[in-house]
Structure formats: structure tokens, C-alpha cells
Specification:
heterodimer, A: alpha+beta, 3-stranded antiparallel sheet, 3 helices, disordered C terminus, B: 571 residues, alpha/beta, Rossmann fold, 3 domains, 6-stranded parallel sheet, 23 helices, 20 strands
């Protein structure tokens, strides 16, 4: 299982350059990406993108740069991150390792808190997990 | 009912655009067709440059001279690609440039169409923001947003890519936005907390050897007066970055000049000896502080509108003040004034005077072997008005100008700092002259740098923009030659430009005045004639091939390793 830092980016999609811009921020700072998961959260074009990246000396630069990028609402870093992986094929869930054709591997983050960056500044740390579902409507 | 091109022109005019620099082509032709009507009633001026790189540099020069975004345009493919160097230059130096690029029609995109290039894919990495429009009705919104993005926080360039079919598309009932609306962008904070301000003041009051480092942020914030007031209250000397030269009148007695890689020795030495450093509107690049070790023992206060510049430093910032320099400095001045403390710091000031006199005696020498750059610049300063705007190219002449050109008014020094783009000087001067037609504009250039964009000389002639180009002509790519001589065992290679180029004939062939100044008196006479004739002019000033740009540092060196004399070359 890859080790690294899990980063969540919330921002507004205009076209696919939004995703390119996020990825290239890591690329420019020589940070490798292990996996990406993203989806649209609402009709205003709010997107959530998770990336698992190498814990690189340049990572702080990347987070700061991303957080001040036009269109990015905020960037969160998951602290003390671990992950659990499950494999899904149609409606069936398998334990990780039982990978089969046409299956998806989902990386489920397990974390104790997040640090949030907005407009180039650390805005606070959140150790609550209780708003995981309901927050999507508000953001 | 308006078509997209009309919406674009009206939107730009509504935001205050008075000039556009560019070249028409297939994909921005309808834009030009509409501009034709608006130039007839003088609502807007359209300047035809001779290469799109110059359009971006001219827009940049316009922005830096005026404080307002400069606008450039190019057609799709090669036209837009030629803007790239100029846009990157503006981004590195935090200059608000807005580029309107034509694009192939939506239906042709991504298919290797004629003159197609993925401009968003390229530009998004060298701009603050880049957007490709999908609907003509989006034009007013994104033009308003572009100006807002370009000017708020750390300024920077914005690109709007317009597919050709949108220029002609009819629009009905388009809302003209009164305010910008960008999801996920709302600028940066504009004030630091009072506790932080008090912390900073406390450090400065208790400092024995305080020093202020000024960057371009002071110019963009119009905070020159506040910096001078603070310097005066604290008895703190000022040094600047290369771009920060534009913010400080050099006749201020406590200004020591530019510090850094090619900085003035007294400025570098004062920095090394200081105990508390107040950095205002500067990101402290590797050019200003080549070795972070030089700052490690100091207390550092940093004022910057971009919080990431405070967070990113490899050295410790004791107090970071995020916000607009002018507002923060006003708060600091109020706090200082209310304390009513003023320490003469006589020892520190005495030491600075000593440093200044010691190094000036070293710089201002003339062995009579050819024209000396410092004396050329002094001659020019004596004959040019106080508010003359000086632009530069990149190379040795730029370093001589950084060392010896006295900026006497804010926003009158324009150079390519972060990107170090050769060829910047002439087009930037053209842009500055459009922005400030009543100011004298002089392009202090090198022969190598000037020749990179000299094809724009006819722009100055045809548009009646009487910029004066002074060419420090040593027939060599001097800075590269100097590095080869000093640090590559004298293996000088691929730097000589030959002796056939005749700058006087070149100028005359474009309809400009040309002079060959063989003495300081010739130079003064030529400048006076250029001012009198009020026409674009090129004045060639011969400089000995081996004239060095000093002080400098060895590669990877610290400010403690300054090389001050040519005789101190290392092998």
C-alpha cells in the first residue's frame, strides 16, 4: 500500500484545465502522485479531488500554491493518515487483494483530523469526522 | 443585439482599457474589425507591434508605468505562442497583463487545425489565471473578472482565449456585471492584526542595526511615502531588490541601493551587518539572497500581500504581516509615533556612511580606457528629466543600470527581474510611453538584448512614440562572457556578436534618429537632440568588451563572498 500524504482539494470546475492545474502543481514541484479520486459535489461546479502524494520536502509549497490558485476554495491535508482499501465489482464488495476484472479499488481514508489552507494561509485544524456526509450541501 | 467581438471591446473599455498592443490574424480578426470603429472615435488606441512577444512586453511596460493592467492580443497558434515569453515575464514580476488570444473555432479544437495551439494548457502554468470561453455571453463577466484577478493580491497576468466563432456569435440579453464574481477566489487579507504590528515594532525599536528591504510590492501598493516615513522614524537604512528600485527615490539619504547577486557592495554589507530586517513587498528570491545562511542570525519581519511568500521561506520569519504594504506601514507608523521613541542609532548610521564612501571610491574610477558605464549613466541622469522612465534589457547593461542609475520618482524603473528576459527593454519602453505620453522614456539596453526585439523600432516611429534607446555596445553577450571568463576558466565561446552591425544605420533604416556617441559629451548632445526632435532615437555607446559588471558572486556563493574588483577573479 503506498505511503504518503492525502490531500483533499475543493474548488470550482470551469473546464478540465481545473484538474490539470491541480496535478501540474504537484508535477512542477517534483511530487509524485499515487492515486486520484475526484467527483462533482453540487450544481455550482464544486469539485472534490483527493490525491495521495509523496510526503516530499516541496509538499508545503504545493499546498500553499494550490490554496491560492484562482478557483480553489480550500485545501485540506489529512493528518496521521492511514487507508483501508476495498474492491468493488458491480454491487459486490470484496476484501482488498481479491481484485478481479472490471473491479474498482476504493481507498478509504482513516484519519484523526485535517489542516485546512485557504488563500495561502493555514486556517485551522479540524479533528471532527461527524460532518462527512452533510457538509457537501453547504460547501 | 451585440456580437461577441463588440461585447469584448465594450467590456475592455468599460474596465478602463485605453490601449491594446497586438497583431491581427485569422482568429482575432473580427475583434480587430470591431476595434476599427472604436479607434475612429478614439475610444481606444490599437498599437501594431512587429512580434507578439513585444505585445506582451509593451502591455507589461504599460502596466508597470501606470499601475493599471496592460492589454495585449494575438491570433491563435503562433501568435498566441509568441506571447508566452512576455506573459511569463509579467508573471514572474507580478505585473497585471491581460492577454486576449484568438483560438480556432470550437468545432476545430483538438484536431491539429490550422494555427491551433492549446493555449490554456500552456498559459495556465505561467499566469495567475487562464480561461477559454465557451459562450460569447460570458465575455463581459470574464473581462471584469480578469481585471479583478490581475490586480488583486499579488498582481499577475490573465489570459482569455476566445474561439473564433464566438467573436461573430449574436448575443441577446447579456448581463453586464457590476462586480466580479469568481467562485473560489476572493482576494487576500488586507490588514495584519494589531498584535502582530506591535511585535514588529517592538523588534524594530529594540534593534541596534535595523534594515529595510524594499521590493516591487511597495510600488504596487503605492507605499513609497510610508516606507520613507518609517525609515526616518527608525533611522533604518533602505536597500532594495532589483524591482524594488522602482519604489524608492535614490536621493533619499538612507537608501543604499540594490542588494543581491549583482547588488551594491554597501547594500550587501549593510544587510550582512544588520540585526533586524524588515522586508516589505519582496519575496526574497535566490537573486536577492543567494544563500539563506546570510539571514539566519537575524530577526526578520516580513510584510507581504501574498501569505505564501511568508510561509515558503527557507529561513525563519519572526513576524509575518499579511496584507497591503501601505495599510500595514500606516499602522506601524501610528504605533511608532504613539510611542514617541526615536533612537538616533548613531553608530549604525556612521558605519553606513563609512561603507558607502568606501565602496563608492571603488566604483567611480575612470582609467580613461573607453567609456565607463557608471559615467555614461551619470551623464544621462544629468541631462534627462527627473521623472524619466527607464526600461532595460537583460545583461551587463542591466546590472550597471541596477547599480548606477538613480531612480528619482516611483514607477520610473522597469526591468525584467525574475525571468531575466532579453529583449524586454524596447517594447516595455513603448508600452510605458503609451501609458505616460508626457514622460521622457529611455530604454537602457545592451547590444545583444536590443537586437532581440529591435524589429519593434518602427512601432515607435509609426505610432509617434519618441523613446530613446541607449545601446551599451560591447559587441558581446557580456554577462555570459564574464561568467565564462571568471568561472569557466576563460573559455569564452559563442558570445561574440561581431563588428559589422551599424546601430546608426539600423535606426535610420526604420526612420529613427541614430547617433554614435564616442564621448560623454557626444552622449549628452545626442540625448538633448533626441529630446528636442521628439522622435524615436537610438544612441550607440561603445563599451570595452571586457568591462565587467561588478560586484558579483561566485556560483552558489554567499553575499560574504562578493567579488568587487576584476582582479579578484577566481579560476
Amino acid at each position: 500500500m503506498p505511503q504518503g500524504k492525502l490531500v483533499r482539494i475543493l474548488g470550482y470546475y470551469i473546464d478540465a484545465s481545473y484538474i490539470e492545474g491541480i496535478i501540474s502543481t504537484f508535477r512542477k514541484l517534483l511530487i509524485d502522485i499515487h492515486w486520484i479520486y475526484g467527483r462533482r459535489l453540487n450544481n455550482s461546479g464544486l469539485y472534490e479531488i483527493h490525491v495521495l502524494v509523496n510526503d516530499h520536502p516541496n509538499l508545503k509549497f504545493a499546498i500553499l500554491d494550490l490554496s491560492k490558485t484562482v478557483g480553489i476554495e480550500k485545501v485540506e491535508i489529512y493528518d496521521k493518515y492511514e487507508e483501508r482499501e476495498i474492491v468493488i465489482n458491480n454491487s459486490t464488495t470484496f476484501p482488498y487483494g481479491d481484485e478481479c476484472k472490471n473491479s474498482f479499488i476504493l481507498h478509504i481514508p482513516i484519519y484523526s483530523g485535517t489542516s485546512t489552507y485557504k488563500r495561502g494561509e493555514l486556517y485551522g485544524e479540524n479533528i471532527s469526522r461527524s460532518r462527512c456526509i452533510s457538509r457537501y450541501n453547504k460547501e | 443585439m451585440l456580437i461577441g467581438a463588440e461585447l469584448m471591446v465594450q467590456s475592455l473599455i468599460r474596465e478602463g482599457t485605453k490601449a491594446i498592443f497586438g497583431i491581427p490574424g485569422l482568429s482575432n480578426m473580427k475583434f480587430y474589425d470591431v476595434l476599427y470603429d472604436y479607434t475612429k472615435n478614439e475610444s481606444i488606441k490599437v498599437i501594431l507591434v512587429r512580434h507578439e512577444q513585444a505585445a506582451a512586453h509593451a502591455a507589461d511596460g504599460y502596466a508597470r508605468a501606470s499601475g493599471f493592467p496592460g492589454v495585449c492580443t494575438a491570433t491563435s497558434g503562433p501568435g498566441a505562442l509568441n506571447l508566452v515569453t512576455g506573459i511569463a515575464t509579467a508573471y514572474w514580476d507580478s505585473s497585471p497583463v491581460i492577454a486576449i488570444t484568438g483560438q480556432v473555432p470550437l468545432s476545430s479544437m483538438g484536431k491539429l487545425s490550422f494555427q491551433e495551439a492549446d493555449i490554456i494548457g500552456i498559459m495556465q502554468h505561467i499566469t495567475k489565471f487562464a480561461i477559454r470561453l465557451s459562450e460569447a455571453s460570458e465575455i463581459p463577466k470574464w473581462v471584469k473578472n480578469a481585471f479583478y484577478i490581475a490586480l488583486t493580491g499579488r498582481p499577475g497576468p490573465v489570459v482569455i482565449d476566445v474561439p473564433r466563432d464566438l467573436w461573430t456569435r449574436n448575443t441577446n440579453g447579456v448581463n453586464i456585471p457590476q462586480a466580479p464574481s469568481i467562485m473560489g477566489y476572493n482576494g487576500f487579507r488586507y490588514r495584519a492584526g494589531s498584535e502582530k504590528v506591535k511585535e514588529a515594532i517592538s523588534l524594530l525599536i529594540n534593534a541596534e542595526k535595523p534594515l529595510i528591504i524594499v521590493g516591487a510590492g511597495v510600488m504596487w501598493s503605492n507605499a513609497t511615502n510610508e516606507v520613507l516615513t518609517l525609515s526616518n522614524l527608525l533611522n533604518a537604512p533602505i536597500v532594495s531588490t532589483l524591482l524594488g528600485k522602482a519604489a524608492i527615490p535614490h536621493d533619499y539619504p538612507l537608501y543604499l541601493g540594490m542588494m543581491g547577486y549583482y547588488g551594491r557592495a554597501e547594500a550587501n554589507q549593510a544587510f550582512l551587518e544588520s540585526d533586524v530586517v524588515l522586508v516589505i513587498g519582496a519575496r526574497i528570491s535566490d537573486r536577492t539572497l543567494p544563500s539563506p545562511k546570510d539571514i539566519e542570525s537575524k530577526k526578520v519581519i516580513m510584510v507581504n500581500i501574498d501569505p505564501t511568500d511568508i510561509e515558503k521561506q527557507s529561513f525563519k520569519i519572526d513576524v509575518g504581516l499579511v496584507g497591503d504594504a501601505k495599510n500595514i506601514l500606516k499602522d506601524m507608523i501610528n504605533a511608532l509615533t504613539s510611542l514617541g521613541k526615536k533612537n538616533c542609532k548613531c553608530e549604525w548610521i556612521r558605519r553606513l556612511i563609512e561603507l558607502k564612501e568606501y565602496y563608492e571610491a571603488m566604483y567611480y574610477q575612470d582609467d580613461g580606457k573607453g567609456l565607463k558605464p557608471w559615467r555614461v549613466l551619470k551623464t544621462l541622469r544629468d541631462v534627462l528629466p527627473k521623472d524619466t522612465i527607464a526600461t532595460t534589457g537583460v545583461g551587463q547593461h542591466q546590472m550597471w543600470t541596477a547599480l548606477f542609475w538613480d531612480v528619482l520618482k516611483p514607477r520610473t524603473f522597469i526591468t525584467s527581474g525574475g525571468m531575466g528576459t532579453m529583449g524586454f527593454g524596447l517594447p516595455a519602453a513603448i508600452g510605458a510611453k503609451v501609458a505616460k505620453p508626457d514622460s521622457t522614456v529611455v530604454n537602457l539596453d545592451g547590444d545583444g538584448s536590443f537586437l532581440m526585439t529591435a524589429n519593434n523600432l518602427p512601432v515607435a516611429i509609426e505610432e509617434n512614440l519618441p523613446v530613446i534607446s541607449i545601446i551599451f555596445d560591447n559587441r558581446v553577450l557580456g554577462l555570459v562572457r564574464q561568467v565564462q571568463e571568471m568561472f569557466f576558466n576563460g573559455r569564452e565561446f559563442s558570445v561574440d556578436l561581431g563588428y559589422k552591425t551599424d546601430f546608426v544605420k539600423l535606426a535610420e533604416s526604420f526612420g529613427a534618429l541614430g547617433f554614435d556617441a564616442q564621448s560623454y559629451e557626444d552622449l549628452a548632445t545626442a540625448v538633448k537632440k533626441a529630446l528636442r526632435e521628439n522622435i524615436a532615437t537610438v544612441i550607440r555607446v561603445p563599451i570595452p568588451r571586457d568591462e565587467p559588471a561588478l560586484p558579483t558572486l561566485p556560483p552558489g556563493g554567499s553575499l560574504k563572498e562578493m567579488i568587487i574588483r576584476a582582479s579578484r577573479k577566481t579560476g
